[in-house]
Structure formats: C-alpha cells, structure tokens
Amino acid sequence: MGILQSFKIALKSLKGNKLRSALTMLGMIIGVSSVIVLVSIAQGSAKNVTSQINQLGTNLLTINTFGTDLSLTEDKISKLSELSGVKAVSPVVSGRVNVKKDRTTAQVTLTGTNAAYSSVRDTKVSAGRFITDLDIEYRQKIAVIGTETASTFFGAQNPVGQYIQIEGTSYKVVGVLVSKGSSLGQSGDNVIIAPLSTAQRLVGSTTINQVYLQGKSEDQMDSVKSEVEMKLASLYPNKSDSYSVTNQQDIMDTMSSVSDTMTMMLGGIASISLLVGGIGIMNIMLVSVSERTREIGIRKAIGAKRRDVLLQFLIEAVVLSGVGGIIGIFAGLGLGKIISSLLSLAVSFSSSVMLLSFLFSLVVGVVFGVFPANKASKLNPIQALRYE
Amino acid sequence: MGKPVIQITNLMKTYKLGGETLHALNNVSIEIEKGEFLAIIGPSGSGKSTLMNMIGCLDRPESGKYLLDGKDIGRMNDNQLATIRNQKIGFIFQNFNLLAKLSAIENVELPMLYSGVSAKERRERALEGLSKVGLKERSGHLPSQLSGGQQQRVAIARALAGNPAILLADEPTGALDSKTSKEILQMMKQLNELGHTIILITHDLEIAKQAKRMVTIQDGQLQENRGVLIGHSTIF
Fold first, then answer.
1. Secondary structure in 3-state letters for A142-172
2. Long-range contacts of A309-312 (CB under 8 A, 24+ apart)
C-alpha cells in the first residue's frame, strides 16, 4: 500500500474524531506559536538595541578622558586624523549651559565640536545647516539645536534665523537636528551644538572631554583602534591610565551576545511546551490504538501488513503535529502582531525560526508517534479480533 | 475432484492455561479440495476457533504441516501470512467485523487496498461485488445504517473482493435471525455452485447440514462424518 493511501486513511480517521484531533493539535499550536512569539520579541528587542547603537554613528571609536592630569588639546588630537585607517576626527567639548529666549529658560547640554561631527555621529539637520569649519575659525556665535530644544524655545515657529541667549550671549540658530529619539537613557534631542571654539569659551575650558573617530571600514576597526592607541601613547606618554579608547563594535558584540543568549533561552523555554504537546500526541495515539484494537485486528485479518498499520498510525501522529505546527505558525504571527501593537514592543519575525519550529513539531510527531504506532502494528490479529 | 487446496497433516496446537496444557488441536489431519463446501461442527471449547485461525493463516501450527495451495504456511513470516490472508482467504465473521466508519463500498475495497489495486479498479470491482450480493444501491451507507443481513452481505462481498481460493465463514449466521440466516446460507450455496471453496464453521447442526461435507471437531480431534449424521446431535 502506498504512502498516499496511508495518508488518506489517516486523514479520514482524524476527521472522524474532530474534537479530539483539535485538542491534541492545540498542544502543538501553543508550542509552535509560543516559540515564534517569544523568539520574535527577543529578536525584535535585539534589533532595536543594535539600531540604537548604530544611531550613535557607524564605525565609531570613542576616546574618553577621566581625571584632570590629562588635557587633550585640539592640535594634538588633529594629528590623529593623519592615521591611515581614520576617516574623520571630531573633538568634543561639552557642558551644561543656561539658555534663555524671551521668558523661557532651560538648562541644555552644549556640545562644541567641528563640522566632521555630523558624519561621525550620524547627526543630520532637518532644517538649516550644520556647523562648518569656517564657523570655528571665525568663532561664530551660531548654534544648531535639537528638536526638543527647538520646541521648548520656539514652539511651532521655525527657529532657523532666530536668536537665543546662551549664558547671556546672543546666538543665531542656523539649523535644527533630525530627531534621534532617546537612546540608552540619553535624550538625543535636547541639545545645542556650537562651534568648538565658541563652546570652549562658553564652558570656560579648552580641555577636550571626548573625541569621536570614524574608521574607514567596519572590518578594520580593531586595527584602527590599536593604531589610535599607539598614537595616543606617543602623544601623551605615561598617561595611558587617564584615557580609554572604545570601539563601538565591541559594545555591539556584547549586546548581541546578550540578546542571543536571551533568544536562545526564550526559544528553549518555549520548545518545552512543544515537547509537552508531543507527549499529548503520544497519549492520544495510545488511547486511539487501544480503542481501535478491533479495527486493527480486522485490517490485519484481511491482509494489512505490519508496515501498513505502523504507517497509518505514524502518519496520523505526524499529521496531528504537522497541521498543529502550521496553524501554530499563523497563530504565532497573529499573536506577535497583536502583542507588538498592544505593548508597542518591537517584534521581528524570522522565517528560519518558523521553519525550524515547524520541522521540530514534525520531528516531535514522529518521535512520539513511533511508540503507539509500533504497539498497534505488533497486535496479534486473533486477540485483536476478539477484543471488545 | 481436483487437487486439494488445503492439506493439513498431524496439526498440533497447545495452550497453557493455569499450569495445565490444553490440546486445542490434537493431531488434526484433513484435506479439502477445490470447490468443496465443508462444514466443521463442534461445541464451544472444541478447538474449532483454533482450527479456523489456523486455516485462516492467523496462527501458525506448532507441529504438523499445513499446505495452502501447495505453500507451507508454517514456514512463513508475519508479512507473508498477511499477503496469504489478503490473496487466498476471504473471512466471513459472526459479527461481520466491518469497519464502522467506512461506507459499504469502502469496506469492500479494503482488501484490494492492501493488495495494491488501483483506486479506479478497486471502485469498479467493489461495486461489482456489492451488486452480486444485491446491495448496489446501498454502497454509500455506513454499516450502522444497514440491517444485520445486509451487513453480512457486505462482509461476503468484502471476502470475495480479492478473489480468494477459500471462503472461511466463522458462524456466519450466529448473529442473524432465522429468515436472514437462510438467505445468507442460500447465498453461500450459490457461491459454492459458482465454484468457490467454502469452509463453514458452526456449532449448529441444522446449518452444518446445508454443507456437502461435514466434519466434527471435539476436544481438538477431527472426525470425518462423510455426510452421515452422528447420533447424539443434541449436544450441539
């Protein structure tokens, strides 16, 4: 007897027991859909974190200073841009400043930097222009402001071309930044960016707090990092404890390894429910075998071979788990969509996870179907026929 | 008559029941020829069910020899026995043993399903079989929608479906009223006249008398009656 025929027989007997089949499938449906939902939530949040880190700029190296015994200066820092792997260098002076416009006052983070900052930190303007190197040279009293700062001081008006008071001095707003949203706890929108030279005067210090460097390509970041470290060591001998160079890729790797572990864990927990669903299938198949002992006896008496009976019951189990798996995929997709819209969670579906959980459900069907099917195929026809 | 379709020589089968050895079949020998209508009669516990299982290739002999169509059944494995049952033997049971969830025609198709007949041919042959037993109009009915006599006729059609060498009927009228019993017996006689070999197993002497040849089984031993009725028929 062919496989196709076995399929027909199996489907027929499943149809004859609709409620039972549906309930048995429910186990697999819950298993598969929970794997898909949990894994896609984990992957969605991982993607979220990655894109937030990427918002800080791509191929980014950061030099941070701590303590007071080291003061980075502009002329020494500019030597870093001569390194082969470095595309752009952007020194930063930062501090909190009081900003006033008419009757509105607020404390805002001031960042003094150069024109390269725009590309290094992936900071674009939505209106007006960014700082140019000429602004720094001529110590222009201009500012580029974040969207939140803009709405604080100008409301719905266009800020470009208007003036604000920073620490009592009038500054012309030349540009508004594209909104970045808050990333890693910092609001990226409540900022003022001013030319480095002007900002140094505003915060009353020439010391550069941070330097951002952009590498030329993603795969060279490790060698660029050591290049920068060596250069810094020669520029500031015996001060290596006072600064640190961090590669953004390192942070990204750590983050992704954390989120991978989380994905694995959630997927693992969810696959336990798949296993439980499989045990449910085995249970029902065992009941079904003993219920249908007489049927098996009749089939055997009129010429069904062991293989025929085995296949019939095995296919029933696999159809239960397979159909349950397919329904589970769609249930998981639907549930994921609902969860993401209700809880505003980022959800990322991956077809490989769907395929994998479907295959896993098939394997569960085979594994847990073999035992009852084998039991059925081994029944003695004489005893099976006598069974009431 | 022609050559024997069944040759049984010195067949033995014992069961162990609570430490006691029970000779269900004790040195049974019989030859059945093609086209015969044989009744095996015996009271319950006489070993007739064991003999039926043996002839029906559901069981293997412990010792002795069973040749069906010249093939040694004792030497076959389970799969070969299944094939033999499928192709050489048509079973007719006391309680019909139709599959409750299959329609009449699907029940008749079942043996052909296992022998690998194509779907189209299966359907044609099953329909032909059903019209032979006068149930062509009922082919789509489930067994529960048919009367006992009709169910047994479906079972007969199923038994005939594979065109088997022998028809093995185990108390075919045991669950039927006397009128329907007569019809079923009449049908079996007709089948015999058409050339089918029929082995009828029963405890009812009246039914056994309908056969052309009768053997008695008691305590696992077979006695040939050659159509002569035994005196103490009251025990049956």
1. EEEECHHHHHHHHCCCCCCCCEEEECCEEEE
2. A309/A373, A309/A376, A309/A377, A309/A379, A310/A373, A310/A374, A310/A376, A310/A377, A311/A1, A311/A3, A311/A6, A311/A373, A312/A6, A312/A9, A312/A10, A312/A13, A312/A373, A312/A376
Q: List CB contacts (< 8 A) between B113 and chain A.
A: 1, 5
Pairwise CA distance, residues B133 & B129, whole Å: 7
State the ipTM, two decimals. Answer: 0.91
B114, A308: Cβ pair inside 8 Å?
Answer: yes
The model's pLDDT over B90-125, given as tens digits with 9 standing for 90+, comes to 999 988 999 988 999 999 999 999 998 888 999 999
CB of A17 within 8 Å of a chain B CB? The answer is: no
Q: Using CA atoms in the order A69, A70, A74, A77, what is the torsion angle rounded to 10 degrees?
A: 170
Environment class of A180 (CB within 10 Å of its CB; exposed 0-12, middle 13-18, buried 19+):
buried
Q: Which of A302, A309, A380 to mutate to test the interface with B (most CBs of B within 10 A)?
A: A302
Q: For B212, what's the count of Cα atoms within 13 Å in the CB-facing half-sphere?
A: 14
Residues of A in Cβ contact (< 8 Å) with B108: none
Contact between A167 and A151 (Cβ < 8 Å): no
Give the range with max mean pLDDT: A179-183, B16-20, B205-209: B205-209
The DSSP secondary-structure symbol of B59 reads S
pLDDT band at B2 (very low <50, low <70, confident <90, very high): low
Which residue type sits at A72?
L
Give the DSSP letter of residue A72: B
CB spacing of A298 vs B58 below 8 angstroms: no
Q: Do B59 and A1 touch (CB under 8 A)?
A: no
Radius of gyration for the alpha carbons in chain B, expressed in angstroms and rounded = 18
Inter-residue contact B67 to B6 (CB < 8 Å): yes
Q: What is the rounded CA–CA span in Å between residue B234 and residue B204?
A: 10
The pTM of this model reads 0.76
Contact between A330 and A17 (Cβ < 8 Å) = no
pLDDT tens by residue, chain A, 388 residues? 678 888 888 888 888 889 999 999 999 999 999 999 999 988 888 888 888 777 777 788 888 887 677 778 878 888 888 888 888 899 998 888 899 988 889 889 899 999 888 888 888 888 899 999 888 889 889 999 998 889 889 888 888 999 999 988 899 999 999 887 765 556 678 889 999 988 988 888 878 888 898 888 878 888 888 888 888 888 888 877 888 888 888 888 888 888 889 889 998 998 898 889 899 999 999 999 999 999 999 999 999 999 999 999 999 999 999 999 999 999 999 999 999 899 888 888 889 989 999 999 999 999 999 999 999 999 999 889 888 7
**A4 in reach of chain B (CB within 8 A):** no
Phi, psi (degrees; rounded to nearest 5) at B90: -115, 120
Rounded Cα distance, A88 and A118, in Å: 10
**Which of B91, B101, B113 is facing A301, going by the closest CB pair?**
B91
3 state SS of B47: coil
Token duo for residue A65: 């200073």
Q: Which of A12, A302, A385 sits opposite B111 (nearest CB)?
A: A302
Kindly provide the b/e burial profile for residues B83-117, where b requires at least 16 CB atoms within 10 angstroms of the residue's own CB. bbbbbbbbbbbbbbbbbebbbbbbbbbbbbbbbeb
Nearest CA in chain B to A382: B58
